[in-house]
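hi! just following up on the protien thing from before. the input was this:
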Amino acid sequence: MHGGLGTAKLLSPGQTVPRYVGSPFSRYELRQGKKIGSPSLIADAKHIRTDMLSSSVILAGLVGAWFGLDLDRMAAILVVLFVFKAGAGIFVDAFRVLLDASLDFETMDRVKTIILKDPRVVLINSLWGRNSGRYKFIEADIVIKARNLEKASAVSRAIEGEIKKQVFHVDHILIHYEPQKKETRTLAVPLNDDMQGLSEHFGDAPYFYIATVRDRDGTLLSEAYHRNPFAGEEKGKGIKVSEWLLEDGIDTVYTPKGFKGKGPGYVFSDAGVDVIVTRDRSLKDIRGNSQKGEDSSDLII
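and the predicted 3d structure came back as:
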């Protein structure tokens, strides 16, 4: 019988390595098949395991007959069940490939985590995955926090690179993206103790003015003054303040000085936030210009 127990033999030229039954070998082949994503190795490992179990059942039937026990019928039923189970598993795996749904949940969940980890991704509309042998093919439809297609394209390329770096054997990634369409804009302004003049030092600013404005007509929808919770920190206050503002969904930051080469600049750039170096030195002027839809900036980063 194929896969039955037997003694080892030396191979003559031209012979292939015989498949032998042994649970350590089948378990090893199954592990390697799952590791590299090879359906043929996985199917072969399951085939060997089925052969081993079938041979064991038949051997049990022969031993039973030796002792006068009629186990043939039960042994036949068990063999049929083993073969059916193995065949059904292989059929389901092959059918999932035809449905483009063959990637396992763990892999798809890892891809989803990588995409959502990027702070510039707002939403995943859909995510598909399939494999051909060991190679994986992934397709995603996402919404990116960016005001133009050039920035959205850069974000898409960065996400593709991260997926290929963290998920093995990815042959092709296709990401459909679109910039986020928002009817409102949330802005932040660093303020001095008087809560009117702009603070020259972003991380040390005692207060921040946060407001939401409707893009279409500049209507002020909400506004609030927040005390800077990191003003007393000795190190890294600029980055901590930047991350704190991102939690409020900031789209635009006004500042008297730029962040080139500094921590806040990198944080806001990664998150797709517009940093505007403004000529205005009071909150009154910024608020008025923002509501009018006018640009009072020297530089937009």
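DSSP finds eight helices and nine strands in the chain.
The mean pLDDT is 78.
cheers
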